[in-house]
């Protein structure tokens, strides 16, 4: 596939994910960590306009001067921006204008791709991978918006992600020794994966399957949410302050557990792989099982030996730089490095990760309490 | 005008106010005290469905069972409701469905009006006056939504409300004595105006004009916002904690004062009547002028002697029951009485008040810090 | 009694109230609205030093320059001050130094009183009345500090304030007409009582007794705290957000109601007069009884016709200026006027009010949710 | 030294640290993370009573039943406890009673030590190390209490900790390879140091000196606190929200930097080793220097090659379990393991660490924003 085709395909996929939305669905921001779908559509476009067209296409004229202010996410280098929590209050430009913005930028990108495809390959790849990351956020944000509506609207009744099951059982055992960690080879990767290096791992075993709803229900019925002894101290505060009693999107209706899925509200499927849990819940579950979560290094070393890709898997590693990590200069340097404190690494990929956007060295990261992504649990011992 | 014509006219006016809105504009709730336009359209309809059709039209079938949950505002008697702060996150039902809801209820109201117009007159009048109150909130909420957008969209360039000027000057003097206060006579009035009663007023003078932007600019340039001595203690806290330096919607751009109006961002007109100020600001301005705000009783006693109706006028009266105030039984009793603490009375009417919805005994009320309504200042001494 | 004797007597009484305290008891500030006993002792002294000695005693030397910063309460005119919420963290100067400060100021006040007793009479009277107000706050703050200690220490086992009972029953009726309100005559009074003026009152009846614990228990057992219909809207929010289920200091232990008194934890006495309730609770109780609270004007007009003085009595009047209220110039003007918004008036006096500090025109005021004073309920209809 | 002598010596040292305190100084809790000195004295005693005497001394009678509730810190296993933020409001038991409590427990501990010194050695060592940890917190909490008093009291004018200087300069270089990490050998250690294991380290250099005030002043004068590019994202939020402009206890007075020390307010000594900075500040300083902080593994591997012990040194390692970490059963298991999320490791020891309480495998940990400990910066590259 040419870069130009790849560009078109990925950009179209973002829009495709919005097919089922009403105009109203594009607007709200029900929580600080969620962004309106309209904002995702515009911000990914802004990324190409700001970092690619504006710098590299001769005589390029911005679609609208205000947009660089409205759709900047967190790049301090690029100037002022709308406060994150106010994204849901900006009704204009509207959805229609945002789609026009996309068309305008896409048209100019096609021109640029004819001119400088080779020279700008890396930068454009970064933009495309950035867009793919937002595709996953887009779908999880849509789920959050619809899933917090008391009438539980259906997004797409043909999606069965929440019902996916394991294909394997048992544990894989790895021997003590030196392992190589980090990205190497051809193809795109993020700066936080770079600096391939050696780590020393001790003997460990890691599960070939992810924890299921049935297993988690057993944790709950064994008092998992009421026994402080399973929990990290800050996890226990999170449970008690927020009155957490089950994974996100679970609802007990007339005594029976249901969960909200992208296909609507459904009875909980016990065989399906658990999802939408926080690191705190993952760690508590593991403690209850008298096991633990793997480190991100154990996970990567063992990843060829089990199936992965249905849920982002919480590891017991904090998100920190690899040895010799170098923050790039300028705005692109704000992409990853500045988030390297107080977050935990997730490995693998999920049902909502776009095709070809997964690799075993990928380092995803979220705060320990966050659970609106399709997160799950793989145990180690 | 028949009640049926009056019903149609008022209901249409609400929709007319939304003509200039995009679908996206109907959705957000940028502050707890603001409601989405979509919500106003639905809630006023819900009022007729819940309190009129459901109780009085034989065999009436609710448009949608979920709506009574979604569009209840604060009536505890009518059951659970969406948390006030979450109104902006409910994208479905959409704008189109809300208009269908209005049509459905209007059609059934017309049937009912043929059957029981006389019997239900008072209740329907309450619903219409309720809708008129929401018309004013609708327009001020729209101004808040658009006015907090950094690109300052125009709502209607033909509206000149913020430019209105005084027609009179000087003071009116009233003599000490007993005055009668409260509603009396034909026509609609709210329960909080009832119980006409005597009050004893001492000599006072009240201005025939409202404070202008020019006068308020003088207050600002005399250090009005930096000298604690003019302010009530809680007003001074409000100023310092929120870094208040000017009325709402005022912006200093390149050294010159502008204000956001429904016609867009404009240079401040010094002759225009000041608006969008809090009670705290009104009281501080009066202190600086070595005058005071009138009580609501002084205001009502003098109201025939000056023009009013361009701005809601802060009085120095707390919102409290009149002697012999009776809270009606049931849900209708929640309309006014339960708010009678910690709010201040505003008298008169504003440029945003619907036609025929004003009378001199009308008691409007807001918290001392609220200023997104078209509020102004009339001085007394 | 000479002014000098009166000065000594009141100053000694403040110290007498602290006899039962340990050094540690003088220090903490368990809530923003509470002040440490040490602070009360110093602040009342600061008032005499700042407003009397410093201005009027030739060659007076401040006890310590830092004290004017440390012990200013809310007088913006007198310069910077310690944030109210930090008063409990200032361990030095210690209790001993504060008593030395008192002695030093008292000694110089005696000198001044020999010189200028007549000339400074009004200012010194203000200082003494200020000190008496703090005596009441001192005792209620001590109760709050000890009453929030899980081991419930005894302050003075001989105090029986919480057990006081009514001496009268029935209602007094007053006729419609003009009544004179406000202070008149000899002796001290605060500026907020001044401006004697006429008010027109309609017929009303007012109870000769205060509500008892037994009556309030009936309200509770009738679902008083769970039925929103009795409550003002902000009162209902206060109840639900703070999980209020009983008056302050009430504890249900093994199924039986106890209350913490200055004499320690005791079984609740049903015949005793209810105390430590908020305005919200007073208003809800009155609504449940199908009566109401009196206005402060009704209260004053009727006050000669019933016993009062055991509890501060919530009225349904907001704290607002009387006609012709004039705020004094300078720091003294900050005493009362700047608090005239968002608070409710209480009339009468309480068991904790110092002797000779009560009069029927006295206007006490607190926010609607505050209840650590000895507040009670008198009903009207 | 016998265990009995060691017990006495450590217990006396705690009391010795309080010699300079007034009774009032023992009471307050000016921030949630600070505990009153009185509480430290009692809590360390409670530890011996609860975990040693109560379980192991036949017929031991608790000093006071309430104390186990009042002086539990965070052990959920031991039942209810006073909310952490309320510790400063508990005036009784007083300081004198707390010293009696210490004597009572010490006396019984001496009896027990005669009986079962060998059998209980490990548990008593844990209690003594626990007490030593609180000695450091005691001194830093005292500094916080006095240092937030606007009159800046002196604790001990002979202490010169804040003036300590480096004794070495330059960098040490270590070669790539496998290193052994974790505690091994005789003597006490905490569970979080256990599980000696191999780590693979790449080449690195680490400074032999700690960052000085002069170097940090250069960072400040180079715009260190105003250039987002040096900061982690959450660090930048911390700086802007809290208006941080300098290390804790630094005050610019008449244009000159001073710092509050245990010896009182002093002019800043440029040659002294920097202290009281957060992890965010340490990381920003390192970024400005184009270096980085060492990991805790690098630190431990290199520790024999430089002097340490004057400041706790922030590492770029999150506080996480070592391979094969086992949480002990029961209350003792709450000591360390449950805090292993969202905190950063500090290595070394500080001027406030008690003698013999330091070792190179010791893992201290705090949140990234905390800076009231004697923290400093050692750079790596």
TrEMBL record, chains A, B, C, D:
InterPro entries: CTDL_fold, EgtB, Sulfatase_Mod_Factor_Kinase, SUMF_dom, SUMF_sf. GO terms for biological process: ergothioneine biosynthetic process. Residues 168-303 form the Sulfatase-modifying factor enzyme-like domain. Transmembrane segments: none annotated. SUPFAM superfamilies: C-type lectin-like (SSF56436). It holds the Pfam family FGE-sulfatase. PANTHER family: HERCYNINE OXYGENASE, SULFATASE MODIFYING FACTOR 1, 2. NCBIfam families: egtB_TIGR03440 (TIGR03440). This is Ergothioneine biosynthesis protein EgtB.
